Amino acid sequence: MTPLSRQQIAWRAAQDIWDGACVNLGVGMPSLIPNYIPKGREIVLQAEVGIIGMGPTPKPEDADPDIFNASVQPTTFLPGGSTFSHTDSFLMIRGGHLDLAMLGAFEVSEAGDLANWNTGDPATAPAVGGAMDLAVGAKAIRVLMDHTTKDGRPRILARCRYPLTAAHCVKVIYSNLAVIDVTPQGLVVRETIPDLDFAQLQAATEARLTLSPDWRVLEAPALS
Amino acid sequence: MIDKQVANLEAAVAGTKDGATVLVGGFSAGDEPVALTEALLTTAARDLTIVANGVGGPKRGIASLIREHRVTKIVCSYPRFVGGEAFAAAYKSGEVALEVVPQGTISERLRAAAAGLGGFYTRVSAGTLLGEGKETRIIDGEPYVFEHPIKGDVALIGAQQADRWGNLVFRHSRRNFNPVMAMAAAVTVAQVVEMVPLGSFHPDQVHTQGIFVDRVVVVDRARENWAATP
Questions:
Q1: For B79-122, how does the pLDDT look when each residue is reduced to its tens digit (9 = 90+)?
Q2: What architecture does CATH give domain A6-217?
């Protein structure tokens, strides 16, 4: 059993984004998603800084320093792309105008509570950025995350231990072990990686899981 | 005749008072209006409250105000930009107080001040650490928290072009917080890359109207901020 790489998690999440979706991508793993959007689907990417219709990352020599995304990385416009002020950007985000926000997560609870902004470490100033705005405002939240901490403790929990970003917002979890839907009946496992049985997955998860009748094996392509 | 252009940076920030709330435009250290921010060091103003998205880089702009002990409070969403050591040290020692506000709530609190509103209710931060102690109201079955306006005494913003009326045009991602800050302060000062003759802007394409802008100063090659502020 080999857990998915970050690239493979991003690939799997990208397969579920539909043609025409307006999407905000968080920093970290979600920022890899544009590399794996299936051909033929037109996805409209929005970022907090006030840009919509972003294209591929430019080569360094082609980068315009005034065209950047919420990670302050150079980006490009697709034909149809545009910029606007923060007022309009967060109206898009908070007013339910985005179809999807794909975010990273420290922890997710079985109720779909999300913790992704504050580890409670008193030495560093807490930084929220646009995390709460996205978690509350987008029509659906999907998260990309490692299933456990580096030392093997579950990050999909009965209740989050870290301070919440927002309650009851996560709809789908793409982890390095499984694809899990957050439903009113609890967490439902839709896909698992090869050679991982349900008991092993449950052992790596604090929240109670059930297996979907449509469960299947998650076959991801080899990606570096 | 209206001419909002001033001769230099010192004139641009003249009159900034002790205890002022200063709105600093831009998204991160890379597009902060560094020259204007540093010009505050030519005034005697202390005990400043800075409202910005971040806390600046290691040396220039907001960081230089922190190092010169001019800042007592920062209101921002993301006090953790790479290289923000000046803030990190002042935060640890307790010299600078921090109010962390969700990014869209900063923007909307500024807009509320700009529009003459007494505040607004939002679902953002309800039920979280950042919503604790705030007035909460159930609207359509969901909890909302009340947020107060943020009014600036001074806004320091960056734009690409201005005309002598103070009409502004921004370039690409560098618009961000600048327009709403321009609208939310008693005195708004813009540093621009170039002045253009009145009438150069197409009437449909002015981003921020001169009614919101009090002073304009040309900062040569302002885009060098990008490289100079790591």
A1: 986 677 889 999 999 999 999 999 999 999 999 999 999 999 99
A2: 3-Layer(aba) Sandwich (3.40)
Give the C-alpha separation, A90 to A95, whole Å.
8
Strand (E) or helix (H) holding A6: helix A6-15
CB A74 within 8 A of CB A57: yes
Alpha carbons A109 and A100: distance in angstroms, whole number: 19
Domain with B194 in it: what CATH number? Answer: 3.40.1080.10
What's the one-letter identity of residue B51?
V
Q: Name, in order, each residue with C-beta under 8 angstroms of B108's C-beta and a sequence gap of 6 or more.
A: A87, A90, A94, B120, B122, B147
Mind telling me the catalytic residues of A?
A: 48
Contact status of A137 with chain B (Cβ, < 8 Å): yes
Cα B111 to Cα A86: distance, rounded to the nearest angstrom = 10
> What ipTM goes with this model?
0.94
Chain segment B106-164, per-residue pLDDT in tens = 999 999 999 999 999 999 999 999 999 999 999 999 999 999 999 999 999 999 999 99
Residue A86, strand partner residues? none
| Structural domains of chain B, count | 1
pLDDT tens-digit map of B40-54: 999 999 999 999 999
SS3 B134: coil
Residues of B in contact with A128 (CB under 8 A): 77-78, 100-103, 130
Q: Is A84 touching B (CB cutoff 8 A)?
A: yes
Neighbouring C-beta atoms of residue B46, cutoff 10 Å = 16
Q: Which domain holds residue B169?
A: 17-100+151-219
Residue A115 token pair = 């913790």
